[in-house]
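Quick question about two entries, pasted in order.
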Amino acid sequence: MTKKKSEIWEWTKALVIAVALAAVIRYFFFAPIVVDGLSMMPTLHDQDRMIVNKLNYKIGEPKRFDIIVFHAPENKDYIKRIIGLPGDTVEYKDDTLYINGRPYEEPYLDEYKKQVIDGPLTDPFTLEEKIGEKTVPEGHLFVMGDNRRFSKDSRHIGAVSMEKVLGNTSIVYWPPEDFHIVK
């Protein structure tokens, strides 16, 4: 009887440790997220499942063009691309992104730009027109969805506080046939 109790106790301990470890990993390091909507097309598709790396921005700085997940104002998590970093000026004209006065290529938009026939993919704007500031404020990011005509992003909700960022994401793991690392 003692041997059976000991074996049950060992299994119980192992199960509790496994559950606790999984909870710690999910809460502090990695978490799954489901893409909800079309705002990141063609890069990400509705219902893609991805892994959010929560650790990256706890120990490092965000990088321009990273795809991040953040808490949005309407109690939802959004997935968008970092366009402007703190201190940057951001402007769009003639369907070209300008950061600090320098034009930037956005190869992830090439597919959509070819399809657009009724004007630019991204309407022209300046940062000041969208968020009322000449530069991205310290501790904030300017983010945009890749599906520029159908994305609710910093052009609508303002700059995103770094405190709201959950982490970055680059691995689509579901559906299995679409498994890939996003660039």
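Here is the second entry:
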Amino acid sequence: MKSIINLTFDEMWDKIMACDRTYDGQFYTTVKTTKIYCRPSCKSRKPKKINVDFYDDIVAVERAGFRACKRCQPEVEHSPHTQLIKNVTSFLIKEYKQQLTLQDIANNVGISPFYLERLFKQETAETPRRYLEKIRIDKATHLLKSTDRTTLAICYDVGFHSPSNFYKVFRRLNKCSPTEYRNMHS
């Protein structure tokens, strides 16, 4: 099933292999052979890639006959703010290329910027800005591995407006430069 957050199959596969919490609630991993579905961050043993499919809607997953993983419990909302945080992360994933301010994000979900930042940090342990940076760098790492575009072109394509900031954030999250990353994964 096509994801509404515009990630390719390989990008979603990378997220589940990394047990990335960033995308929890945005899509679900299904395993055709076991008929189980999980969150992207599930720590259970990873299935063969050929047996995996992705859904963006938990209702569709269950309607297709899959049952929830007992380890990651994707059907359980762990907080009363889960839907709000899902709306914010969905907005960030869709609009990552845009120059977003905290006010823009807050306006999208209808709460004050101060409350958004406090609540978001409480629920995800990150600020919306850090979360957005992580999404941009995730996209950049995928492009570095799968295309031959220049690092500068990728920098601007994923929403950074300053190459120096791109390199700084990339190094902080990946412990290497974009060029080093491309060389390690080529």
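Reply: DSSP finds nine helices and four strands in the chain. The chain has a mean pLDDT of 91. Hope that helps.
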